Known about the structure:
Elements: H1 2-10, H2 17-27, H3 31-44, H4 49-61, H5 65-77, H6 83-96, H7 98-111, H8 116-128, H9 132-145, H10 150-162, H11 167-185, H12 195-217, H13 221-234, H14 238-250, H15 254-264, H16 279-290, H17 304-308, E1 310-314, E2 323-332, E3 335-344, H18 351-356, E4 372-380, E5 386-391
Antiparallel strand pairs: 1-5, 2-3, 2-4, 4-5
Helix pairs in contact: 2-3, 2-4, 3-4, 4-5, 4-6, 5-6, 6-7, 7-8, 8-9, 8-10, 9-10, 10-11, 10-12, 11-12, 12-13, 12-14, 13-14, 14-15, 15-16
Amino acid sequence: MKKLDQAKAIQPKQPFLWGSYGYIAMLQNRPGDAKEAYRRELSLYPSEAYIVELFGGYLHRLGEDEDAVKVLSAYLNAGNIDARVSTQLAEIQSRLNVTDAIATLRRASDADPTNHELQSSLGECLLRNHQNAEVAALSKKILADDAEDARGLNGASYLLAEADGDLTIAEQKSRKSIEMEESETATAGVSEANAQSFQRTASLVAYWDTLGYILMKEKRLDESRDYLEAAWRNRPDSAVGAHYGQLLEALGDSKEALRVYELSRPNPLRAATGFPELQPIGDSIARLEKAGVASTVKPGAERALQDDRTFKIKLKSACALYSSAVYRIQLAAGSTQGVLKVSGKTPSDDFDDSIKKLTLPHLVPAHSSGRILRDAVLSCSTGQTECFFVLMPLGNITAEHPAN
Length: 404
């Protein structure tokens, strides 16, 4: 702060000075000071997109969405073109009035017609507004343009399926996105893992969810389950849970479908009210409960997902001292391809084989040629003859280098 004060004494109107004051006040939880400083910065330099994004995002986090819309709209209405600001504005608008969000994204897409992320965002808003025919046409355009971009292919394939468009095309392009991602994972070993490797795992899981959803809409339920169960086991969130729950219902397992829906919420006992993204989950839960399906998620069951990814490894003798370690495993369909200790200590040196022999859940589709990475924590308590091996949620451990 002292440096900023010195800079202000020299030139109180220099670019980003007041924006820096605003940022510091924001970090220090002084919203009044932060808003005043951000507004002063933008009064001097209204075309600073970075400050506009910061201020608009801050107002949104404060729950002041109408003011956030004013700040972001003022920047765009002044003739500035910025895809990030447009996307940020549309995201906030979509919670207030989806037609306003559509208008914002149309203008941004017209100004930047090759930006397929903008077009995908537009498609999502159009879908919410039940403009399915336009979504299907837009999705096909993205699929034609994004022929070699796995992420773009996946997103547009999902939109096309959601819009009840051509499922044959959606499946074909979805499979291509998976093949492109799987080819990048097929040769690298567990010891070569880096941040990009984990991003590929996250992408593959998302792409499996898309293909599984498309196959479900095509009534190919067994094949759909291969992909959706793997996606759910790796990423048990509301998006994947909604799809997997629908599949389980189609397969006649309403009880397990209800369990999946309930566990899909960030807090299994939290209602969907006030969280629009959770509303489909809430509606499915209410429908099944009305039909007489009994809930199996009870108070204290927040640990259910962790229990699903916790496994035991037997020791030859009781553990003398408490020990723990972080492991990285590479998984393929039906097998563990590689095991690497990243850090920590274990009671003995023969845990790699024990981990390889664990019976893990369905984490990779049987039809997949890809390999994914998961990190896990091994903990062994003093005097116990079993150790716990807990798979961590995707992206939960950031260590990337093995122990020496």
